[in-house]
Amino acid sequence: MAKSVLIVDDSLYMRTLIKDALESGGYNVVGQAANGEEAIDLAFELQPDLITLDNILPDMIGTDILKVYQDEGLKSKVVMISAVGQESVVNEGLRLGARAYIVKPFTNDQLVEAVNKA
Question: Is the whole model's pTM more than 0.70, yes or no?
Answer without folding.
Answer: yes
